[in-house]
Design goal:
With about 475 residues, the chain is an alpha+beta fold. It has 17 helices and 21 strands. The termini are far apart.
Amino acid sequence: MTEKRATVLAIDIGAESGRVMAVHFDGAGLQLEEVHRFPNYALTVNGLLQWDILHLWREVQAGIDRSRAQAAEPPASLAVDTWGVDFGLLDRDGNLVGNPVCYRDSRTEGMLDAVFARVPKAEVFAQTGIQFMAINTLYQMMSLVESGSPQLQIASRFLTVPDLINFWLSGAQVCEFSNATTTQMLNPFTRSWAGELLDALQIPLDLFPEVVQPGTRLGTYEDIPVIAPACHDTGSAVAGVPAQTENFAYISSGTWSLVGLEVAEPVVNEAALAVNATNEGGVFGSFRLLKNVMGLWLLQQCRSTWEQVGRAYSYPELVSLAESAEPLRSFVDPNEDRFLPPGDHPAHIQAFCRQSGQSLPQSDVDIARCVFDSLALAYRDVLLELQGLTGRPIDVIHVVGGGSRNRLLNQLTADATGIPVLAGPSEATVIGNALVQLISLGELANLEEGRQLVSELGELERFVPEGEEAWQGVKMPATQ
């Protein structure tokens, strides 16, 4: 048996939960061990939907302490990734001015128009290369400017959520590149803050710290080296894709579905603007040309609504039931604004179908099937748009993340696109986080070597297109 060579801690925090994972590397393969898992949630306080960031900090520390107690030796390093766009502001003494506000809060309503009144939409895209979504940090910051928030007067430093946790771990007040790009405030060509844009919007440029690349050593926490991975969870997930060809697409499938291609340079032109594509930072100089699709959030909200009235389903049960439902009967556009906030999504889905002149899904099973069919259709449309921007063929679609375990959605994705799907690993975010650490530590030579290890994990499942003819001519409906 090969002797264990290095263990790193990958701390991955999502919108619903977080975990501390030990990733063991023995020189020939990877082994994952869950050390600590904890919930994450947002609470409405004083009219704002806020994250309990101190709860997350306590749980991160608890996970690190538990890993120390369980292992004979401390980990070789640790690294944190989280969701994107949300942030905290620090005063001049390094104290948090207020809880980070959740991107689903309504404070960004009207903020795109407020930005465009000062800077034309095309110019915002030219300076950032990021798709227009109300959740983006730019519009959250604009809400502070428009409201005259005292936080901007007090604040001395801006840090995104993972950068804030990294500051508490290491003392380094920096922003990691992949997560910084999600703010729509960073120039992808200079790889520094978009000062001209920020000045025009009266967002203080001096708030923003140095931008560092994935793999940067930030400092230490209790003598454990703290390394910046791709701090954006999708950046880490794409790093963990078991790609064996350049011509691959990926879907990081979870609450959100991030559908895209890995490219060497950002694609910022009129065509990319027209399809609202985005260029997020990747690892080791790459970019992620992608679009966000609302993802399994729709099913999560349906499940929550049904549970409130006494109809409880597990996710595997919903998938199994939906397999037997009538296919391709009705569709919704997952990215319609009505689906963004928490709410009665079964009613929203029925309203969309009614307003678009489609058959109305009545049963819970039919609604679940509508969600899966709609996601597969949205994935197809995004990939066609991205192929149009790059001219690149797609040999395989890698589906990673928790949604990769959804065999029905994987098969529907293969059928809708006509492209084989390779599903797994479900822990791609943790694996990608760990790979960057191992490369930084010198345990791996490069990302290609790391992705080869991922391809050998043994949990991957292939889905071959079977019913693509039924999808021909199917178009995403629009409401009247």
